[in-house]
Amino acid sequence: MPVITVERKVLEKNDQIAAVNRKLFGERKITAFNLLSSPGSGKTTLLEKLLPQIKDIMCGVIEGDVQSDRDAQRINSLGIPVVQIVTNGGCHLDAGLVKDALANLDLTSIRLLFIENVGNLVCPANYDLGEKMKIVMMSTTEGDDKPLKYTPMFRTANVCIINKIDLLPHVEFNPDTARENALKINPELSFFSVSAKTGEGMNELADWIRTQV
Amino acid sequence: MHEVGIANEIIRIINDIMGEHPGQKVDKVKVVIGEMIAVVPDSLTFAYTALTENTLLQNSKLDIEIVPLTARCNVCSRKFNIKEFEMTCPYCFSQDIAVNNGNELYIKELEVS
After folding, report:
1. Could you tell me the CATH number of the domain that includes residue A68?
2. CB contact under 8 A, A123 and B1
3. Which residue out of B13, B21, B31 would a mutagenesis test of the A interface target, given it has the greatest number of A Cβ atoms within 10 Å?
4. Beta strand pairing status for B70-73 and B97-101?
5. Which of A3, A6, A9, A189 has the most B C-beta neighbours within 10 Å, making it the best mutation to test the interface with B?
6. A4: in domain
7. Beta strand pairing call for A59-65 and A112-116
8. What value does the mean pLDDT of chain A take?
9. Does residue B90 register a pLDDT over 70?
């Protein structure tokens, strides 16, 4: 039977567009973070608390959601430039969606871009968006074995934020176990423990972000 | 279900290639997928079958090869399979390892007639 050799990456198109995005970020001196977590870990709340703390840096946000522009409205009310991507059922952002969203942001005034991905720890791990770093977040109302269940995500992330630490007295989540589990998957991962609600740990996170811009 | 997105990209690439091979029909698509990509083969096959229904690819079959996660230890130089994603050398317990295989996601070849 005749065979046609292909040897082509399945996500080649995404990777090509991601490279275009990365080049654009480089030219414009924009630091882009891909922010990832399960639904309800508090990504938008984290941004709502963090962005006012780093007012000295010109920020922009791309919000990815399956439906609605509720998250973009929350960011917009802070006076921060934001573009909402509605994936209409799609479970992750891809580089093409981000490229289209970038066309609707005034990049000349942005030094730091947060791309809040769709709440999902599976699919977004495979899609490079052109970001400088992936920041994965888990919260204390989830299992501390999450890194062992969603290994590709924790393997490809650079930074891990543990959110909702104000709830630690009330939940079974053990932050030390969570760190140990995450480090088994990715020994290079660095951690921040925060409560976006009370503000605990947010200064340390803001200080680190300043070093990245 | 990132399998749907992956199936869509596979179909896009096949159509791209078959545009240069008019008159030929795809019988089998060999896809190589690393364990780290976390694709469920049954879900990918289901998505591929559903998306190719009533198209020129409708009778083609996906042949999925899963590549185990393997690594080489940078300290003791031994090679090993990674079990349950624990990124530690089972011989010297170093975490300084280089993953060799398991991140693949590509179309290897098409069998046509």
Report:
1. 3.40.50.300
2. yes
3. B13
4. antiparallel
5. A6
6. no
7. parallel
8. 96
9. yes
Cβ within 8 Å, pair A125-B38: yes
- Distance, CA of A59 to CA of A109 (rounded, Å): 8
For residue A92, the distance in angstroms to the closest alpha carbon of chain B comes to 8
B90 token code pair: 């089972």
Query: Which chain B residues have a beta carbon less than 8 Å from that of A91?
Result: 1-2, 5
Task: Report yes or no on A1 lying in a domain.
Answer: no
Side-chain half-sphere exposure of A150, counting CA atoms within 13 A: 24
Residue B110 has its nearest CB partner, among A4, A123, A185, at A4
Decide if A32 contacts A129 (C-beta within 8 A).
yes
User: Rounded to an integer, what distance in angstroms lies between the CA atom of residue A164 and that of residue A42?
Assistant: 8
> Within a domain: residue A2?
no
The radius of gyration computed from the CA coordinates of chain A, to the nearest angstrom, equals 17
**Residue A91 belongs to a domain:** yes
So what's the architecture of B2-112 in CATH?
A: 2-Layer Sandwich (3.30)
**ipTM of the complex model:** 0.91
Please answer whether residues A172 and A204 qualify as being in contact, where contact means their C-beta atoms are separated by less than 8 angstroms.
no
**Average pLDDT rounded to a whole number, residues B64-70:** 96
pLDDT tens for each residue of A13-48: 999 999 999 999 999 999 999 999 999 999 999 999
Q: At what angle do helices A12-27 and B2-18 cross, to 10 degrees?
A: 100
Q: What is the pLDDT of residues B37-58, one digit of tens each?
A: 889 999 999 999 999 999 999 9
Order across the sheet with A112-116: list the strands.
A82-86, A59-65, A112-116, A31-37, A133-139, A159-163, A190-193
- The number of beta carbons lying within 10 Å of the beta carbon of residue A148 is 17
Ordered by start, the domain boundaries in chain B are 2-112
Q: What total of structural domains would you count in chain A? A: 1
Nearest Cβ partner for A185 among B27, B87, B106: B87
Alpha-carbon span A93 to A60, nearest angstrom: 17
